Amino acid sequence: MSDLSIADIGAPDADLDPSGDRYAARFAGPAGEYLLSRQTVALQGLLRDLPAASILDVGGGHGQSARPLLAAGHPVTVVSSSREAWGQVAHLDHPRFKRHVGPLLRLPFEDQSFDVVLALRMMAHVGDWQTLLAEMTRVARRAVIVDFPLPGGANRAKPLLLWAKKRAEGNTRDYATMARRDVHACLDRLGFGVTDEVGQFVLPMVLHRMLKAPRVSHRCEAAMRAIGLDRTFGTPVVLRADRAR
Predict the structure, then answer these.
(1) Which of 65, 27, 60, 71 lies closest to 46, judged by CA?
(2) Which residues lie closer than 8 Å to 181 by C-beta, 6 or more apart?
């Protein structure tokens, strides 16, 4: 698949860029594999008590969650804003895998259609993340899982990070940050309570890409997790919230 133009924050096709070949190439090689492994480990940990749960992956054309979830035994459905945004899963053939097209902020599914509704790489780009959460919680029977970047920590230097990302990756897109308390409060209003969350990286992800030394990255991040910095500054946060009512 060829990469198309990068959508601005709030565009209806916010899932198009992360489904493309150029975005996938950012996670190629040892450094990219290390970054992706942290996300996969976090996701698997959050789902450890829900084996074989059915999962709706909103904007999941990047394939970064669908493939490991299928390998773990979950039935997975990806819903994308267009056929083009199926991207890395357009030709994925698996007996437990389905694809759909529909608006990300008006999901084309009945209430409580899936055990878990997941959205990675979406909160920071859809613009109206509150509506995204409302739709996800509507469709979820048991839980929702999302990731989002915090405004603190490394993201205090967001303009510099975007400049570094553009230098390192050749092209990048802006992203919105959101406070943990605002996300928690929104989920609470929707009848979901936060049960667990993982702060993925204390150091900026672009720094790990530029280092190209996953062993060094692993040791640095492990040392900061050991003293609890990830619980305050780790970003993006991967969060699970369960239906409370």
Answers:
(1) 65
(2) none
Structure-token pair, residue 225:
């997790």
DSSP-assigned letter for residue 213: -
What size, in residues, is the chain?
Answer: 245
pTM: 0.88
**Coil, strand, or helix at residue 109?**
coil
> For the chain, which domains are there?
17-148+176-200+235-243 (3.40.50.150)
Whether the CA torsion 155, 58, 173, 185 is positive or negative: it is negative
Rama region for 17: left / alpha / beta (φ>0; ψ in -120 to 50; rest): alpha
The pLDDT value recorded for residue 5 is 40
Phi, psi of 130 (to 5 degrees): -65, -40
